[in-house]
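Entry 12.
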Amino acid sequence: MKTLEGSMISFGLLLAFLSFSSHAFKEVVSGIHEIDYGLERNDDDLILLENGHVIKIHRSKRHQFSALLREKSNEAFYRFKINDNRFVIDLTKEKRIKKDNKSTESITAFEYTPTTVSSISLAKRYHSEARYNPKESQCFNRAMIWSYEWWKDHELKSNKIFIFFTRNYIRKFNFEWWFHVAPYVHVLKDGKIVERVMDIKYTNNPLPIPSWTNIFMKNNAKCPVITKYSDYADYPFEGFCYIQRTHMFTYQPSDLQMYEAWGYTKSNFNFDEIKNAYKEAFDEEI
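Predicted 3D structure (C-alpha cells):
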C-alpha cells in the first residue's frame, strides 16, 4: 500500500470517505452539471452532479429516465434514489430554490496577490487551526469556509486548486467524483516560495501539489496544469486528470466557466455562498 508524507489516510481508507452510505438506498438532491453517455455502446450513463459527485444510470434503464433528463435546466434540481453502487433507482424533478443575490459579491476584473506565508511552521499552524468535521460534506463548501476563516482571522489571502477527473479515469476506476477542490497557500521555504495544499479533510499537514493529487489518483497519474476550464471541459476523455489554480473567492467550477466566458472574476466573498457553506459543511446557521 502506498503512503504519502503527511497524508491522513491511505487510498483505501480514502475510498471509504468518498463512498456513499452503506444503506441499501440513498437520496441525493442536486442539479445536473452534465450527462455523459459514453463512447462505447455498452457504457452506462454517467451523471455529473453539480455537487461534484458522479452517479450512474445502467444502460438498460436509460430509456426509463431519458425524458426527465432531457428536460434538465438551470432551474431544476433532481432527487435521485441510488443504490450502493451509485446506480439510479428512481428520480424526480424538483424546482431549484432561487437564491437571494444580495451579497458582498462584486464581479469585476481585478489583480489578485495572494499572501506569502512566512514559514512552513506557520502554514502548519494555520492548517491545524482549521475546523474539521467528520461528516460527509461537499468539498467546495469546506474549502470556502477554511479560506474565509483564514482571511477573517489572519488576513490570509489563500488560493484554491481544483483537480478535475476525466471520464477516462472515472470509468476506469469507477470513481465517485468529477472534481475536488481545496485551498492552497504560498509559503516561504529556504528562501523560495513554494505551494502547499491545505486539505484539512484528507491530510495532517500542508502538502506539495503532487503529493495531494496522488491521494486521489489511484494510478499515480500526473495531472497537467490548465489555465482555462475549457481545457478540461473540451477534452474530457483525454488523460486522467487536470489541475487548475484560482483565487480564494472561487466557489464552484461554474465560476471558472464564468471567468473564461466573460473575462471577469469575483473580487470578494459571496455571502450567500458563505452561508450555504457553513450550513452544509458544518451544520451552522449564520
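Annotation: Residues 22-95 form a domain with the OB fold (Dihydrolipoamide Acetyltransferase, E2P) fold (CATH 2.40.50.140). The first helix runs from residue 11 to 18.
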